[in-house]
Amino acid sequence: xxxxxxxLTTAQxxxxxxxxxxxxxxxxxxxxxxxxxxxxxxxxxxxxxxxLYNAFDQLPLYRGQNEQxxxxxxxxxxxxxxxxxxxxxxxxxxxxxxxxxxxxxxxxANRLPMLMLCGDxxxxxxxxxxxxxxxxxxxxxxxxxxxxxxxxRYWDRITHPAQxxxxxxxxxxxxxxxxxxxxxxxxxxxxxxxxxYDYPAVFFEKRVHRIRRITPDEAEIADAVALLRTAVRPMIxxxxxxxxxxxxQELISFAQAHQIPVVExxxxxxxxxxxxxxxxxxIGVTGSDSANAIAxxxxxxxxxxxxxxxxTTGSWTAFSHHAKFISVNAARHDAGKHRSLPxxxxxxxxxxxxxxxxxxxxxPASWTSFAKDERKKWNSYVAVNxxxxxxxxxxxxxxxxxxxHCDPGDRVVAAAGGLPAEVTANWRTLKQGxxxxxxxxxxxxxxxxxxxxxxxxxxETQPEQDTIVFTGDGxxxxxxxxxxSSVLTRKKLIVLVLDNGGFAVINKLQNNTGNESFNNLIxxxxxxxxxxxxxxxxxARSLGATAETVANAAELVDAFKRAKxxxxxxxxxxxxxxxxxxxxxxxxxxxxxxxxxxxSQKIRDAHADWExxxxxxxxxx
Length: 621
What we know:
The chain is α/β, with parallel strands linked by helices. Helix content is 36%, strand content 18%. It starts with a strand and ends in a 10-residue tail after the last helix.
């Protein structure tokens, strides 16, 4: 070591470098990494654990209960911070690391940054085969960590300490890139973690990052303006990218200036507040009659910050065959989908440039009035849908109660099962950027873990607000251990466990496709010989949470108020009907594989009915 170098282990150098990465947000410098989530094993505790112990003040480490849920929490943290701040996850070699595969896939599908620092087999191979090693007889370089190549944006395995001089900056460049954003994986062989190297001291100097804003091409903007000017029935689809670009005000200003109706994707929920007159509602399979009504008639559609997945497009049946698309997206791959006229660039800049070219354009008043009238009808439907009285308990009722009694700045988290559809359709946004419905990967188990990660982020900026989690009994049983994490770390959650006796939404799909109920509701599982209910309240109490069970939505009102007043994680359990009370309006067609041949007449009829909507499907490329 000299004055110009520092002799450090690979693990020490990684941690030191990460602690020196900053980002500017609203003119303020903050650490790029809010810390990390970690579970130690033999693959990461001796070396990376030692390095993290000595850097706890700069990079606090949250101890998870399950590596998969750690990854979910990291994804939710990044989503809360609009991909400007993030967390790392560290896991041991073998099953500890492989547990992160699902959460890496979730982050990849949702374009969310998280850095994974995971143990790996020895580079020297001297102790081979080692504990938990996956041996491939014809390829000794292949292991569990290679599986992450399919679910990461950046992947590397460090086989010499000097490699991190290139690998770490490359990983960060991916993590903060608006187009390539997603998870990054760095495999750390157990021997290499402890090897030392004389690193250049300059490598550890403070680095301040900024999120790149890609200026759209002038010709693409001109083409988009020319097309949009021809529109008689224009519409804007606002996706999650609007929030990541911090372009909600530009979106609103653009829509207001030209009176263009706006609909939201699932990821784009809370781009606009519910009461904004141009907010026509959520679109698609889990959408609203209002948004889907205007989508059917729109002639020019401006899609901003959305990848146009099938739940948004109704598997491409939601629009006229003659509708023209303008897709504004930082990612070239997304901007060119389905014959769209692409505008590759930052949403904030693109909307401003489009506005400059549309100064004298105004949407016909009859079109805007039609859209607003449709939204009024949808509002009336939702008001009835969330009401309660002499009706079976439903997801919608619970959503309505929470919506009516939460604070505007409270954050709502949901994922998978029936709740994404019910929250998307029935939730009335009270404040921008307060809804996290994970449906890019539709991943059961995200709810509580994601709520914990969101609450960690929220406590950094709005500690007075609550994080509210909606989960079904199926997701709760799949992954609930971060209730304990939230209690241990004093990161309060309000969790509503809505118990419908199994996987009720898939049972509904099963029945809607002509099939008999089978293996979804617990009572319909033929291998179940002892039909025992779960005492979710007692279970939550055993993890340190405050918990209670309510009989109906009326009782939920007071229970939710008690949860709001508490400083501890609170769980409220309510049984809901698995058959009645679903939101039945607002759904577009969704392509779902159904049997074309069956001995069952019900299945054959359901297949014919399902396929009857296929002629509406646009044939994209």
